[in-house]
């Protein structure tokens, strides 16, 4: 039954064995352990008794934690929406720029993306704190100082700052594939630029926009560092709560349940994206 | 003809409201980073006002033993992770590209999971794995004490290498390999002499990707690092938590410069390499 085609059996195993073993040992096993722990009970400091209980998942639905989940979804949603508004015109300019300008604009958006996340977050901290130069500048004209750092505003700004490339790059790749004669036709027939964008461009590239939105939403939802450094006590997201269960509160089973809830949300978003893409392909085929 | 041509209907890149928008985005992206770099040269402990140029903070970094040790750890881990990631990533890519086998789509799915799984989930999984299931021996000599972190880094890096290499393999002309086989090369020999050279640009960019991913990672390392195995980002994090100081600015600038330089080198190398293989 085990048919291997494309080459000899020996060559296949020579290539396949090492990555498969590695993935199993250091990815599948650790995640399975966490999954098993989510049905367990804390015994000692690092000991967990897997009893098959659902108590940890029941605790996730405690209003305190539901509120944190809701807040994380709102933060990630707001981040995605703002990124779309900021990123769409940028991607549009990139699409219609000359080849050299295109490379420049691409590099400009990628360079911060390659910069360490911690460094970027720290840069925002330095700018936004009460002694930072934004407040300094506002103070010079008689305003402020405003408490910006350690607020929800800072968290969303930080998330937008970090996730902008996640939306610009996929938007650019869909806009780049758009048939330009459609825009020309719309303009020739008398529609303005804004109307053309909203009634012609956006409906055509909608599947691509949806996919870009998810590519931004998924990592934003699981953010740990940004809310940790920029947020205050009331701007915690799921990841901060998970970290606390594992490091300070030492309630591994509950932390494991929270991790898997986050994982399920992520995978659901991925599945939805795959489904939407397939539907778009089918619609085109019809 | 002295006047500049008015923008054509599709010249969105030349319309001023859009240009203004792009300029705004650039300011948003670069102003914080630029001020971070600028204040790392500021001759004042308080990071608000410009007091004159100095390299003093960099000098202080160079004499901070804990920071240098963390930096050495980071580079060592990144080197280990890069070598293993490239080998594993390339093997997985060729296996997926060449062969049809039972469980292929499952393997394909599992190997892309580390790219999408939230970092925090992978971090805690590694914490538990190296904490209870397979404890990494405690007092090993350097650099073996970094093994746990290196393993975690390889696990999230090599799928990225696989993605890059697979994209490159898609452009491979199978007839070249068949020609080699017809001329008497064995299967492995044909892979080594014909397929591998075609993969080279992807291997280079995959290696740089793996290196920067490892050097940059904070969240997963944060959960696998022990008190004696601190990496550069973890060290910076503990400094950042403490306060905003010019030393942190200087350390951040160093880290930023390394990543940017490596990436630019990688892009140039890859560009010339592809031009060479395609042009010849």
Element-by-element helix/strand order of chain A: HEEHHHHHHHHHHH
Name the CATH class of the domain at 62-235 in chain A. Answer: Mainly Alpha
Shape of chain A: globular
In round numbers, the mean pLDDT of chain A is: 87
Helix content of chain A: over 70%
Secondary-structure element sequence of chain B?
Answer: HHHHHHHHHHH
The main sheet of chain B comes to: none
| CATH-defined fold name of the domain at 62-235 in chain A | MetI-like fold
The largest contact between protein chains, plus residue counts on each side, is: A-B, 91 and 86 residues
Beta-strand content of chain B: under 5%
The amount of beta strand of chain A, in percent, is under 5%
DSSP, total strands of chain A: 2
Poorly predicted regions of chain A are none
Summarize the structure.
Chain A is built from twelve helices and two strands, in the order αββααααααααααα. Chain A has 286 residues and is an all-alpha fold. In chain A, strands 1-2 form a two-stranded antiparallel sheet.
Mind sketching the topology for me?
The complex is a heterodimer of chains A (286) and B (280).
Chain A: H1 9-37, E1 40-42, E2 48-50, H2 55-60, H3 63-96, H4 99-114, H5 117-128, H6 133-140, H7 152-176, H8 180-188, H9 193-221, H10 225-230, H11 238-247, H12 252-285
Chain B: H1 16-39, H2 56-62, H3 65-98, H4 104-116, H5 119-133, H6 147-169, H7 174-182, H8 187-216, H9 219-224, H10 232-242, H11 246-279
Helix pairs in contact in B: 2-11, 3-6, 3-8, 3-10, 4-6, 6-8, 7-8, 8-11, 10-11
